[in-house]
Design brief:
Structural class: mainly alpha
Helix content: 55-70%
Keywords: Cell membrane, Membrane, Transmembrane, Transmembrane helix
Number of strands: 3
Mean pLDDT: 85
Subcellular location: Cell membrane
GO molecular function: transmembrane transporter activity
Strand order of the largest sheet: 1-2-3
Transmembrane segments: 142-159, 188-205, 253-276, 288-306, 313-329, 335-356, 368-391, 411-433
Family: Belongs to the ThrE exporter (TC 2.A.79) family.
Strand content: under 5%
Length: 441
């Protein structure tokens, strides 16, 4: 390696001054790297896809003066190497629990956009990032709990649950969400929390449905745990892979699969505790307005869980209504679930993109609104039945195992293809329009 001289570095030919300024330059670059990593970590922990995390880090780093920026985004850590043509600095930071918090996420995007224009000092930028994470408004805990219950109950209605099952699902999932928040605040393992909450919510919903005289006990139990289904991570996983980040996307898929397994463990345990053999009556075929209404309720409920602002909750409800209306219409016309889900996702994504040219655009949270609107279409109940079916195959007589294997495999493929169709519809439209992920003004 060629030795760096004071003349090459642009400093006076004084050894002491050169060394001091070189150290100061190195320390400044370190602070810039750590600040950029902090922005990327917050984006990652609040539900951003890989491309957004990388773009946010680069905007901050270049806005602070870095000349070269190399970034690696992993599931549990992010690393960055910054250079200014004289020195370089490489740092890594760990990433915590991957949650969803859209208010914080888009606040940090605004900060990154401002930093990229060179309008923020290092100290001001660090202060704003800290405030975004600690002082951004959140919905009241009890509103969060009620929204989770309402979203799950709406899911139940979409699955054909009757009125008694709607009520028991609402109450059981509210209790489950409250327990979930309490356990996560005490830093229990998220997978253990998932299994425990799934068991509690499914068991309470099943018992309640029995006493209420519901004919949809199984549906009630399945719907009560749907607030645990990782809709946003599953969408991000597919988007990351489609956008050229297969390593992170694969890691997210594995985490999604693990969550589904632990949901199944909880729901399966509840079925065993209640004696098993719980079957629903024949489900009525709801009309388009029925699906649209409860799709809107479910999407708005998840908007609260994702910490959308109140105005954006209305947009999420409209997106959910549109998604379920389009999907139901297509299915009534004879389309398979996967194709109908793809069409609905395209319709929602197009509506969000076209809103940019109206007096009421959703540009600040456009893609998030589209994802929230499509989450009611994620077949969480089918995923649980798929894994439960795999477990039950091992205890079935040989003459029945082939039939159950065929039914279970069909359910699993339907889940995979439906989630894939939703993700493909959203990503295809957003890639065609290429809207900015960060605010321009």
């Amino acid at each position: 390696m060629t030795e760096l001289t004071s003349d090459q570095a642009g400093f006076p030919d004084d050894d002491n001054h050169f060394a001091e300024r070189l150290v100061a330059r190195q320390r400044l670059l370190e602070m810039q790297a750590l600040t950029a990593l902090d922005a990327g970590r917050i984006l990652m922990e609040t539900g951003a896809k890989s491309a957004v995390v990388r773009d946010g880090i680069e905007r901050v780093a270049r806005g602070l003066g870095a000349r070269t920026v190399d970034i690696r985004v992993g599931f549990a850590s992010i690393s960055v190497t910054l250079g200014d043509d004289v020195v370089t600095s490489t740092h890594m930071t760990s990433v915590g629990h991957h949650g969803v918090n859209m208010r914080v996420n888009h606040k940090v995007r605004e900060i990154c956009a401002a930093a990229g224009k060179g309008g923020l000092s290092l100290e001001e930028l660090r202060r704003r990032l800290s405030e975004a994470q600690l002082a951004t408004e959140k919905h009241h805990r009890m509103l969060n709990v009620f929204a989770a219950g309402l979203a799950c109950a709406a899911f139940g209605r979409l699955l054909g649950a009757d009125a008694p099952a709607f009520v028991t699902t609402l109450l059981a999932s509210m209790i489950g969400q409250y327990v979930r928040l309490q356990m996560l605040e005490r830093h229990y393992n998220p997978f253990v929390v998932t299994a425990f909450v799934a068991f509690a919510a499914a068991f309470l919903s099943g018992v309640g449905a029995m006493f209420a005289g519901s004919s949809m006990i199984d549906t009630s139990m399945s719907a009560a745990v749907l607030m645990l289904v990782p809709g946003v991570p599953s969408m991000n996983a597919q988007t990351d892979i489609m956008e050229g980040f297969p390593t992170l996307g694969s890691a997210r898929f594995v985490t999604v699969a693990m969550i589904l397994v632990f949901i199944t463990v909880g729901v399966g345990g509840a079925h065993i505790a209640l004696g098993g053999g719980l079957h629903d009556a024949v489900k009525p075929v709801p009309n388009i307005l029925h699906h649209a209404f409860f799709g809107a309720v479910a999407a708005a409920g998840f908007g609260v869980l994702f910490n959308f602002g109140y105005r954006n909750l209305g947009w999420a409800a409209l997106a959910g209504a549109l998604a379920l209306a389009v999907r139901t219409y297509c299915m009534l016309r004879g389309w398979p679930l996967e194709a109908a889900s793809f069409a609905a996702a395209v319709a929602v994504a197009l509506a969000v993109e076209l809103s940019y040219n109206t007096p009421f655009p959703v540009r600040r949270v456009g893609n998030a609104i589209a994802v929230a609107g499509c989450i009611p279409m994620v077949p969480g109940s089918a995923a649980a039945h798929w894994i439960i079916g795999l477990l039950e195959i091992t205890v079935q007589p040989l003459d029945k195992s082939d039939q159950m294997l065929a039914a279970t495999t069909s359910a699993g493929l339907q889940v995979i293809f439906t989630v894939g169709a939703i993700g493909a519809g959203l990503t295809a439209v957003s890639s065609l329009f290429r809207r900015p992920e960060f605010p321009e003004s």
